[in-house]
């Protein structure tokens, strides 16, 4: 953000012009939140976030709102663009105590927050939260660290946050995403800056989406092997297999012992069923393009032996659940010269990689580098990280996706896309995004069994997009 701002300024756009554009977006959002003419209280801080607040206040007053401006600190100590902004505000500048108002604009701290708010700053944030009016946060809810999504102390709970140019990690990672309320990203005319950290969206992986052609047959669409758990633990692999088929893999094989396959046979029709003791018995088939192991597998020496056999093969591989736990503390064992995707939740992640420091996307990146694998670190704010340094934060998962079996569906989705030759990072990002979109499609009270069906309309819409 700072680099984009510097580049724009160097190219001839004054910083104050950027501030005016930012403030115009703030005023636009405020007008959408408060009835025309209503009282709006704007709380400004000592830096340029406060500057945005001053300019927005002037614009809102011009538009007919009854605006009061409150400053934390002394007007005489404002510098640069913020000082210029304060001069634009012709009305009185009051202390931080807030009057009754229909809307509060939080322009206290933005991306310049550098420590936990204390004293008067903490009190001002607490007073905003206790006020009762909805809060529109400028750039970042004050107190939230835009780089990490964490709050070092007290933070504003906004109803809406308007940020500029692009979402920051703190808007997407929890608890930051919840503190933001609805997120609006406003264009302020900054140049595109090359980056390696993304918000997960169709544009990130759409160009790699595998589209079957007229001459496709089931084996050219990719063949996927899903290793089953034993009898009475087969449901997880079944969910994965059905989702891999739905994702477009031409053929999916469920493999395991006879008793397990008997259970599968009672439930599914499309997947092939193969009795096998070890994956190597099936890897001789050259048409097989991707394998998945872990759902329902069990944490035991047999699972470890099967995982090691699959790691040694030359197919794309997804390791989930128990297949990750059996490799506790040995991420280097995952290094292989073929596409590999790991799908740990926080507990499995810690077991495999140990405690890593830093925000979620940095921990996922460190794990991706340590394992040479694409890591999907699951949660309500799932992060996808690649060993080459790319990472994406996903924010489209509804809370009702937290249900038994949804992880098995995700693993199957990744495997189905890998089977079709999609590159690992893109396949992982697509799977996480579509998983969230399918849960939104299915709606509250979904069960994991609903997800493969809910994926169908979501996938069909992908093909309708230009
Ligand atoms: N970049 C861009 O392209 C654009 C940026 N724009 C806007 O500028 C904002 C960034 O402005 P910024 O850099 O001045 O930082 P900002 O968030 O105002 O905070 C710094 C001030 O807060 C203080 N302070 C910090 N923590 C504190 C604490 N815990 N408790 C108490 N004080 C604390 C800190 O004080 P100090 O550390 O010096 O004591 C300093 O005075 C950005 O979020 C966006 O709104 C737009 O106008 C358009 C284009
Ligand atoms: K703010």
TrEMBL record:
All residue ranges annotated as the YjeF C-terminal domain in the record: 201-462
Any one GO biological process: metabolite repair
Positions annotated to bind (6S)-NADPHX: 48-52, 110-116, 139, 236, 296, 345, 408
Coiled coil: none
InterPro entries found in the cross-reference section: Carbohydrate_kinase_pred_CS (IPR017953), CARKD (IPR000631), Nnr (IPR030677), Ribokinase-like (IPR029056), YjeF_N_dom (IPR004443), YjeF_N_dom_sf (IPR036652)
Highest taxon above the source species: Bacteria
EC number: 4.2.1.136, 5.1.99.6
Pfam families: Carb_kinase (PF01256), YjeF_N (PF03853)
SUPFAM superfamilies documented for this protein: Ribokinase-like (SSF53613), YjeF N-terminal domain-like (SSF64153)
Binding site for K(+): 49, 106, 142
This protein's UniProt keywords: ATP-binding, Isomerase, Lyase, Metal-binding, Multifunctional enzyme, NAD, NADP, Nucleotide-binding, Potassium
Residues that hold AMP according to the record: 378-382, 407
Swiss-Prot/TrEMBL catalytic activity: (6R)-NADHX = (6S)-NADHX; (6R)-NADPHX = (6S)-NADPHX; (6S)-NADHX + ADP = AMP + phosphate + NADH + H(+); (6S)-NADPHX + ADP = AMP + phosphate + NADPH + H(+)
Record domain YjeF N-terminal: where: 1-196
Keyword tRNA processing (UniProt): no
Note on how the cofactor is bound: Binds 1 potassium ion per subunit.
Residues of the signal peptide: none
GO MF terms, alphabetically ordered: ADP-dependent NAD(P)H-hydrate dehydratase activity; ATP binding; metal ion binding; NAD(P)HX epimerase activity
Requisite cofactors: K(+); Mg(2+)
Similarity-based family: In the N-terminal section; belongs to the NnrE/AIBP family. Belongs to the NnrE/AIBP family.
Record's function text: Catalyzes the dehydration of the S-form of NAD(P)HX at the expense of ADP, which is converted to AMP. Together with NAD(P)HX epimerase, which catalyzes the epimerization of the S- and R-forms, the enzyme allows the repair of both epimers of NAD(P)HX, a damaged form of NAD(P)H that is a result of enzymatic or heat-dependent hydration. Catalyzes the epimerization of the S- and R-forms of NAD(P)HX, a damaged form of NAD(P)H that is a result of enzymatic or heat-dependent hydration. This is a prerequisite for the S-specific NAD(P)H-hydrate dehydratase to allow the repair of both epimers of NAD(P)HX.
Record NCBIfam families: yjeF_cterm, yjeF_nterm
Subunit structure: Homotetramer.
Official protein name in the record: Bifunctional NAD(P)H-hydrate repair enzyme
Origin species: Rhodovarius crocodyli
Gene encoding the protein: nnrD
């Amino acid at each position: 953000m700072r680099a984009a701002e510097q580049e724009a300024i160097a190219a001839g756009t004054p910083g104050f012009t950027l501030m005016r554009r930012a403030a115009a977006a703030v005023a636009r959002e405020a007008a959408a939140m408060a009835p025309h003419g209503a009282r709006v209280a704007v709380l400004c801080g000592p830096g340029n976030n406060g500057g945005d607040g001053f300019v927005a206040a002037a614009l809102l007053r011009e538009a007919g709102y009854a605006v009061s401006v409150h400053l934390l600190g002394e007007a005489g100590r404002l510098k640069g663009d913020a000082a210029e902004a304060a001069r634009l505000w012709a009305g009185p500048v009051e202390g931080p105590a807030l009057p009754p108002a229909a809307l509060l604009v939080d322009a206290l701290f933005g991306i310049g927050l550098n420590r936990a708010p204390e004293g008067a700053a903490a009190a001002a944030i607490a007073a905003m939260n206790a006020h009762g009016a909805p809060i529109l946060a400028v750039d970042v809810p004050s107190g939230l660290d835009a780089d990490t999504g964490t709050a070092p102390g007290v933070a504003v709970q906004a109803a809406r946050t308007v940020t500029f140019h692009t979402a920051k990690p703190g808007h997407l990672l929890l608890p930051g995403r919840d503190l933001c309320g609805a997120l609006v990203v406003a264009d302020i005319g900054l140049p595109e800056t090359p980056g390696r950290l993304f918000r997960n969206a169709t544009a990130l992986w759409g160009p790699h989406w595998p589209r079957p052609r007229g001459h496709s047959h089931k084996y050219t669409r990719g063949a996927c092997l899903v290793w089953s758990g034993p009898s009475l633990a087969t449901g997880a692999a079944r969910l994965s297999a059905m989702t891999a088929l739905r994702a477009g893999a031409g053929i999916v094989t469920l493999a395991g012992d006879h008793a397990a396959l008997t259970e599968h046979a009672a439930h599914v029709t499309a997947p092939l069923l193969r009795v096998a003791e070890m994956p190597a018995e099936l890897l001789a088939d050259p048409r097989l393009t991707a394998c998945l192991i872990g759902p329902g597998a069990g944490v035991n020496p047999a699972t470890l032996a099967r995982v090691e056999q699959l790691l040694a093969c030359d197919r794309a591989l997804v390791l989930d659940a128990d297949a990750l736990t059996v490799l506790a503390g040995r991420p280097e064992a995952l290094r292989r010269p073929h596409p590999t995707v790991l799908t740990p939740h926080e507990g499995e992640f810690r077991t495999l990689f140990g405690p890593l420091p830093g925000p979620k996307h940095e921990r996922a990146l460190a794990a991706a580098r340590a394992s040479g694998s694409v890591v999907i670190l699951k949660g309500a704010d799932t992060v996808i990280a690649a060993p080459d340094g790319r990472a994406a934060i996903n924010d489209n998962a509804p809370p009702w996706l937290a249900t038994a079996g949804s992880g098995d569906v995700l693993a199957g989705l990744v495997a189905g896309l890998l089977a079709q030759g999609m590159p690992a990072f893109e396949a992982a990002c697509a799977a996480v995004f579509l998983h969230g979109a399918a849960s939104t499609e299915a709606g509250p009270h979904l069960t994991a069994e609903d997800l493969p069906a809910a994926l169908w309309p979501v996938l069909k819409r992908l093909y309708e997009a230009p």
